Amino acid sequence: MPVAFMYNIGMYKLAKGELDLSSANLGVALLNESSTAGSEPDVTKLADFSTLGEITAKNYERKTLTSLSVTQDDGNNQVAFTAGNLVYEGLGGDGQDDEITAELIYLKSNDDDDEENVPLFYMEIEPLHTNGSDVNLNVHADGVMLLKNKASS
User: Fold this and answer.
1) C-alpha–C-alpha distance, residues 50 and 69, integer Å
2) Mean pLDDT across 15-26
3) How far apart are CA 114 and CA 95, in angstroms?
4) 148 with 30: CB under 8 angstroms?
């Protein structure tokens, strides 16, 4: 089963009320197999990962999450954080390919500086080799994050 988690700093900011997922400026970095981001949950800045391992495929650039939404579902005792799907046009090709193995969602600083960008969510994906085609990354049907209460209604 793929690894998916929220970084400790993200949980802290959410619990302290310092992070509003419905209006935050959230960026997405695509990672390759060299990344250590999936094994360092206590990192507080993107620059502090042993190896961020961001892909270098042709036409790749970090994206900003859009259509952010937080919804409460009393019937299922849960709260979901969702966002819009991501499209990367013509990713890779011309000998500048890479393999995407994970997505990292982070809280963007004003100038998108990794010395200030805060990691929030890490999600492994089925490895995807770029080849110049468009890449569509769809948000899971349950959302980016699902908080679920075990209590029954």
Assistant:
1) 32
2) 96
3) 27
4) no
For residue 139, is it within any domain? yes
What is the rounded average pLDDT for all residues in the chain? 93
As a whole number of angstroms, the distance between CA 56 and CA 60 comes to 7
Nearest to 121 by CA among 139, 100, 98: 139
pLDDT band, residue 1 (cuts 50/70/90): very low
Domain enclosing residue 112, as ranges: 4-147
What Cα–Cα distance (Å) separates residue 38 from each residue in 6, 50, 68, 85, 108? 10, 11, 24, 22, 19
Q: Can you tell me the mean pLDDT for 31-52?
A: 97
Residue 152 lies in a domain: no
Answer whether residue 71 is part of any domain: yes
Tokens 């802290």, located at residue: 12
**Cα separation of 40 and 63, whole Å?**
22
The answer to the question of residue 19 being in a domain is: yes
| pLDDT score of 152 more than 60 | no
Going by the DSSP 8-state scheme, the letter that residue 54 receives in this structure is: B
- Altogether, the residues listed in the chain come to a count of 153
Q: What are the start-end ranges of the H helices in the chain?
A: 8-15
